[in-house]
């Protein structure tokens, strides 16, 4: 558990450093860092909307990873769900799930994707085009599962499922952030983290 905290801290620190350097070089004179990155609180209504979205996307994620070809990759020994299966549902396992879901994965990814990439593309191209391109980039990252060690062989149906869920999730997270939360990335973080926190144990024990 301590190692996971360290790993999560390192990933978040690296994501923050990248965003900070971009701000320092390109936007320091126009905007404060917190405003630039979306690292501030969000309205309760936006957080509630993110909660509802998470409860919708978690089952979609679970269903996607139960598809033949993705199921084995999702529960391999080096995956979060594989580790949960091996350890069982103990208090330590629950803590590890929460650390990975809310810090290591969603913490660093929300800072990078919604706090930097989405915001910059939206600022340059407008919300529609900028958010769509950002969501495509976010979705494409999920296709790396096909080239990862132990990953499934490429399959167009699986690729379409990964792309569709990743694109939709990324687009909705940025929409809530920008249109309902005044640019805060907190709703996206909640939606992303909670979806993963539900999906990891569900995939491990279904």
Automatic annotation (TrEMBL):
<feature type="domain" description="CAAX prenyl protease 2/Lysostaphin resistance protein A-like">
    <location>
        <begin position="94"/>
        <end position="198"/>
    </location>
</feature>
<dbReference type="GO" id="GO:0006508">
    <property type="term" value="P:proteolysis"/>
</dbReference>
<protein>
    <submittedName>
        <fullName>CAAX amino protease</fullName>
    </submittedName>
</protein>
<dbReference type="GO" id="GO:0004175">
    <property type="term" value="F:endopeptidase activity"/>
</dbReference>
<keyword id="KW-0378">Hydrolase</keyword>
<keyword id="KW-0645">Protease</keyword>
<dbReference type="Pfam" id="PF02517">
    <property type="entry name" value="Rce1-like"/>
</dbReference>
<dbReference type="GO" id="GO:0080120">
    <property type="term" value="P:CAAX-box protein maturation"/>
</dbReference>
<dbReference type="InterPro" id="IPR003675">
    <property type="entry name" value="Rce1/LyrA-like_dom"/>
</dbReference>
